[in-house]
Amino acid sequence: MPEPISVLVAASEASPVAQTGGLAEVVGSLPQAFVELGLPSSVILPGYASAFDRGRFEDLGVDLTVPLGAEDVVGRLHRGRLRSGTPLYLIRCDRFFDRPGLYGEGRLTYPDNPERFAFFSRAVIEALPHVQPRPRIVMANDWQTGLIMPYLLEAEEDAPAGVFVIHNQGYLGLAPPSVVSDIGLPDRYYGVEGLEYYGQLSYLKAGIVYAKAVVAVSPSYAREIQTPEGGNGLDGVLRLYASKLHGIVNGVDYDLWNPAVDPHLAANYSAERPAGKKICKDALQTELSLPRSDRPLFGMVSRLTAQKGLTLIVEAAPELFRLGLDLVVLGTGEPWFEEQLTALSTAYPDQMRLALGYDAPLSHRIIAGSDFVLVPSIYEPCGLAQLYGLRYGAVPVVRAIGGLNDTVRDFAGQNPEGLWDNGFKFTQFQAGALVRAVRRAVELYGRRDDFAAMSVANMREDFSWGKSAQAYADLFQKLLAAD
Ligand code: ADP
Ligand code: GLC
User: Fold this and answer.
1) Which atom from ligand 1 is nearest to the alpha carbon of 308?
2) Which of 216, 86, 214, 127 shows the shortest CA–CA distance to 162?
3) What's the mean pLDDT when you consider all of the chain?
4) Whose CA is nearest to atom 19 of ligand 1?
5) 443 CA distance to ligand 2 middle (Å)
6) pLDDT value at 299 more than 70
7) CB 300 within 8 A of CB 373
8) Domains in the chain, start-ordered, CATH in brackets?
């Protein structure tokens, strides 16, 4: 028997101890799928004060000393477990992580984020000898962990292979050149072929350039980031490294997202017994004091940032509401979007409700109570809302980009194999295109039997981690065989 491939997943978020978006759900659930494939896996995160509050962690008595400029900063290794039992390591360093936010507070981004995540990335390397079993792959995620890739190349000879996963090309992880002394890599890493990005340094670029393999979280997104429109200035670099770039779509943790057993719902339901869904819709209307109605209910659960296409909702609102639909939005994010959506919900008191804040139980009730989930993003690397919508019988209406394009098939009647398409797509980022897709969705809703057939068929689709985790495992295998 070959030695099993052990994996250490390094990230800045993992559900349930630290979460701002989908990255946390992936890091919180993919390692368990690795374990089920026979790959021993663990996760390592910065030791945020809030993470320590959300779990039980043992101090392993290991100091991790990281030189930052002229100073030595010491982190302390702790170990607990994720929900699934996967080991979760936290690197405690109160100077950097004993703060209310992960990356900032309100409008403020912590100005020392470049030092914070350089420290974390370097400390991960120092932690490697203490992780059992010894990792053969380190999978790093997004800019916060990008520096791990060059650090691995500088580590001792039998260091693990680095795989860098891009969940969001929109965040470059920029740092001023003055951080060079904190990063502490040899000079050759900082040129245009390395970390340099228009006079600054990009941690995301570090991840891309120095990884053994790069994964984007869907095949469409892997293509889009190689274009000037989607590359955020790094499309040339990604084209240069196209041969090591892969697209693997995310899966869903069906232990957490399963309407048949979901503890947050007014009633449980499934494809076999779908009746409870109507109870969830009634309960949601009551909870949010929306007038009880049989109108199609559209739900959105989202970070309120430009990426999510909220300007399109605001612009299209008069026409959307004229179609006779209700809209429920749950989100938190940039104040400007919160204000726009608040104004909208005031203007349509009978048809719209807005819940501001981060509320996981409510997000489950919204997806369960909605007939449709709306995801009109400008760009969407993978997207999870549409996958939850499918499982919960809320038909996705999405823009045809990134992972949305790869997981939603536009409704065009019954397709040749006799399988139903599973949602509605529009391509142009224009209010008119959104309205046309929503109109087609509302028309289908009017044909109750057809709508119910699609909703129930969607609940049977399988976006569990199995296939995607296997694609990662195959990639790890190939990398290690090539070494
Ligand atoms: P992104 O990572 O870009 O935010 P995804 O669709 O991948 O987008 O993941 C978003 C995840 O965060 C989903 O699980 C969604 O339900 C959750 N989420 C986003 N905003 C909120 C919120 N305000 N309350 C609860 N859950 C939220
Ligand atoms: C990012 C992307 C989102 C993706 C998530 C998990 O936050 O914006 O599309 O689903 O990461 O990979």
Assistant:
1) 3
2) 214
3) 96
4) 302
5) 30
6) yes
7) yes
8) 7-251+465-482 (3.40.50.2000), 276-459 (3.40.50.2000)
> From the CA of 179, how far away is ligand 2's center (Å)?
28
Q: Is the CB of 396 under 6 A from ligand 1?
A: no
Q: Which of 249, 140, 247, 248 is nearest to 203 (CA)?
A: 140
Determine the residue of 168, 264, 310, 363 to mutate for testing ligand 1's pocket, defined as the one with the most ligand atoms within 8 A of the Cβ atom. 363
Q: Is the CB of 28 under 6 A from ligand 1?
A: no
Cα 188 to ligand 1 centre (Å)? 39
Q: Are strands 58-68 and 71-81 parallel, antiparallel or unpaired?
A: antiparallel
What distance in angstroms lies between residue 39's CA and the mean position of ligand 1's atoms? 28
Tokens in use for 399?
Answer: 């823009």
- Please give the model's pTM, rounded to 2 decimal places: 0.96
Residue 408: what residue type? V
- What does the pLDDT average to over 285-308? 96
For a mutational test of ligand 1's pocket, the pick from 303, 365, 405, 407, i.e. the residue with the most ligand atoms closer than 8 A to its C-beta, is 303
Indicate whether residue 21 lines ligand 1 (CB < 6 A). yes
User: Which atom of ligand 1 lies closest to the CA of 26?
Assistant: 7
Q: Find out whether the beta carbon of 22 lies less than 6 Å from any atom of ligand 1.
A: yes
Length of the chain equals 483
Cα(231) to centroid(ligand 1), Å: 23
State the pLDDT confidence band at 483, using cuts at 50, 70 and 90. confident
